[in-house]
Design a protein that fits this description.
The complex is a heterodimer. In chain A, helix 7 packs across helix 8 (193-243). In chain A, strand 4 and strand 5 form a beta hairpin. Chain A folds into three domains: 2-171, Zinc/RING finger domain, C3HC4 (zinc finger) (Herpes Virus-1, 2-Layer Sandwich); 191-240; 244-398, Apoptosis, Tumor Necrosis Factor Receptor Associated Protein 2, Chain A. Chain A has helices spanning 2-17, 45-53, 75-83, 102-108, 110-121, 138-147, 149-188, 193-243, 255-264, 376-381; strands at residues 34-37, 42-44, 71-73, 85-87, 96-98, 247-252, 270-272, 276-277, 284-291, 297-305, 319-326, 335-340, 368-375, 390-398. In chain A, 43% of the residues lie in helices and 19% in strands. Chain B is of the alpha+beta class. Chain B has eight helices and four strands; from the N terminus they run H-H-E-E-E-E-H-H-H-H-H-H. In chain B, helix 4 packs across helix 5 (138-153). The longest helix of chain B is centred in the first third of the chain and has 16 residues, at 3-18. Classes of the chains: A alpha+beta, B alpha+beta.
Amino acid sequence: MLLLLYFICDCLKMLSVIDPRFECSICLNCLKDPMLTRCGHRFCSECIHAWLKRQSQSCPIDSLPLSTENLFPDNYTKREIDEQKVTCLNKGCVAVIPLLEADQHYASCEFNKNQINLHAENVCPFHLIGCKDIVKTKSELMNHLVMNIHRHVTLLSKSHIDLLNNLQSKDSAHSKAVEATQCWDANKDPNSEKALLCNLYERIVVLEQSNIEKDKDIERLNQMVNNLTLEFSRNQNEIFLVTCNGVYVWRFTKFMETLKLMREKPSQTQRYSEGFYTSSTGYKVCGRINMSSDNRNLSLFIHMMRGDYDDTLVWPFSGRITLSLIHPKNQEQTICLKMQSSDESVAFRRCSFGNNGNDTPHLNPRAFGYTEFVAIDEVLDKGFIENDTIVIKIIVECI
Amino acid sequence: MNNIATQRIKREFKEVIKSEELAKCSIKVDLVGDSYTELKGEVAGPPDTPYEGGTFFLEIKVPETYPFNPPKVRFMTKIWHPNISSVTGAICLDILKDQWAAAMTLRTVLLSLQALMAAAEPDDPQDAVVAKQYKEFPEIFAKTASHWTNVYAGGPKKNIEFDSKIQRLIDMGIERDHACAALSSYNWDLERATEQLFS
């Protein structure tokens, strides 16, 4: 590798030897028997004649029309070149050679060949990588080597790094070329193993990609199914509330917690049931529970709500309302109270009020029912609570 | 091989090694094997063109009559360009044909190719389909050339829309390069490309 580097340096040196004025742009060598064209360019006689023998009758440099008649021997330049002498750059060689013969001389210069041997014997072997010391005898050389270990190692590592860089740039270029060639060749020969591998690899990438896409699809579909299930159960509940024919079972969960809240803030804590219809095109009604003002009883009311069919119904509402607190185990202990609507009560009028607040949308603010429906002690003591839940049944019948 | 051709190539090598373009990584020449008859060129896509960022490899065959006849050059890297065949990589460039001059070198050829990439001549096309697209739908042409640069020459601009269309055809069993070529030829009209591929 070092020798190669050395060779390249040498080439560059040689190139710089030739003055561009004396270079033939056809053979890129020093002009031999220079000929001058009509357009003012110089070429070797042999080169320009060979060029004009081909069909193109034009100057190789500016493409102007040119024929052999327009060529003149340039003896002035010939003499100038003859006068040009260069000293051989090889160490030890003292020859002064005509420029024209420089190439031949370099090829055959004995010092060029001997140089390597010279280095081996009398010159520091690290000369090639930059050690400039000159040693004459073997013992001097040994001494030099011992004294300069550190410098030599530094030189070595530096040249090693240079070399690596050089190799790397070559490698990367090479691998790119191979890739490009494969790309091209894969087209030509689809049966070759490489092409097959290449295709398989591409296929894997494609499949992985589509796999990821499918996973995403599945996730999206799952989400959709969940949403639909939720919506469906909501819809089913709504359908039930419309078609319950005025019989509504209110399962009041978290009763103890609510009771505690009612005791702390009796005036602010009331609970409404969902709105339900007396028939599929009937009145919309909901139930309400809160603490009575004496803090000992539960109140149970119904409210008329704004429904979808209010405009087709007869107002005020007229009918029978049954409120029951169901005893989960003993039917006989169930508390059941019935009442009749009264035309005078504002509570049965059509609900024409706006939104009364977040908790009480679209309902008649006046309720109808019992402020002392059942004593709280009775609820707690007589086993009406099961799983922290009480069950209230409301039946609204139209007459 | 005749002496003058080999000698010249050797000297040209040194010229390219010395040149500033090599230092800027825009052109490069390498030997293929030991002979000087086959070489491998490398040209960087010129800046501010759809080829920017790509590295294009060239097959260079030096005839025995070089430099009196031009070297035979074609693109090994696939490229979308009106004056270069998208199928074979053959180049339509006057200096590689009748306008060749003996004073030209590998370096000037590579630089000319780079110039050709920067300034196409659609009126003297090698690839009629590409040239038609270049004239009628310059925006699609630029996108397509840029996509080819990305796919074949390691260019930086990925086109997700084109990729997905190619993928559609691959999923139908079409080979990637065929899919890309067909879509490019039909201005990325998936339906027409499919029609052509299956007809």
